[in-house]
Amino acid sequence: MKRHFTKGMSLGIVAIVFIVGLLWAAAIPADKAEEIAKYVANMIIAGRGVVASHQSLINDPSKGDKGFTPEYVEKKMKERFKEITGKSVEELDPEARAVVEQVLEAAKMSVKMNQARINQKGKGFKMYIPAVFGRETGQILKSRSDIVIKQTTFKYRNSYNQPDEFEKKVLTMFSKPDWPKGKGYGEKIGSIYRYLQPIYIKKPCLKCHGEPAGELDIAGRKKEGYKLGDLRGAISVMFPVK
Ligand code: HEC
Questions:
Q1: pTM for the full model?
Q2: 81 with 51: CB under 8 angstroms?
Q3: Which atom of ligand 1 has the smallest separation from the CA of 159?
Q4: pLDDT, tens digit, 9 for 90 and up, residues 178-196
Q5: Cα-to-centroid distance, 202 and ligand 1 (Å)
Q6: Could you tell me the residue ranges of all domains in the chain?
Q7: Which ligand 1 atom is nearest residue 153's CA?
Q8: Residue 135, CB half-sphere, CA atoms under 13 Å: how many?
Q9: Residues flanking ligand 1, CB < 6 Å
């Protein structure tokens, strides 16, 4: 009995060492971390943009099948990603491409999960908005990999997006008037690389996040009272590096 226990334990240790080894091998090289984190943030921004620009289609009560399929969204996200970064996914370095493709896979899973909601006939506003798409993509990715994506902000509506200490520090930096608009910030903390990319209030955001603060938006949530151009928050990315 005792012998079996010991054997089981040592097998367990071998398995742990093996798994840790695999994770280590999959880790992103530190010298490419900033570049890859920016690609990840921009892929989420691309996806948010695709969901935003299809709101009238998604919320059209007269249409059943919208054709807003995972494959369609992937194609549109790749196009937008190229517009933003100047690079297609296919021309990225293998390390960057592997990570960005994981983000795309997670995004497609969110779109797939929501097909029934999106294709529901007779219903207008469906709450499949950029923030929901972005949160779900981050949550799916987190469950499948060691990459974490959050859309964080001081005035969060969903507790998943609540800023931690590092995010609070960087959001405070972004909110200083002399911080160059649009500039991100990254830092390696131990074996983790963390990066935040600021996002700002644009015209279409105002109907839900604008003034007057406290008034209910179309989703039945309280508006925050932001003005055009205000810092809304950031796309926060973190992953282990080697
Ligand atoms: C139709 C209303 C609506 C519009 C338009 C809208 N949002 Fe939101 N936003 C929401 C809701 C609802 C949530 C919470 C979603 C959730 O549960 O994850 C949210 C959450 C967010 C979050 C995550 C932080 C949090 O509060 O939990 C960010 C960042 C965000 N919105 C930015 C924007 C930006 C930038 C725009 C314009 C490009 C925009 N939103 C447009 C309704 C909206």
A1: 0.90
A2: no
A3: 27
A4: 999 999 999 999 999 999 9
A5: 12
A6: 29-240
A7: 24
A8: 14
A9: 52, 129-132, 135, 151, 153, 156-158, 161, 199, 202, 204-205, 207-209, 217-219, 221, 232-233
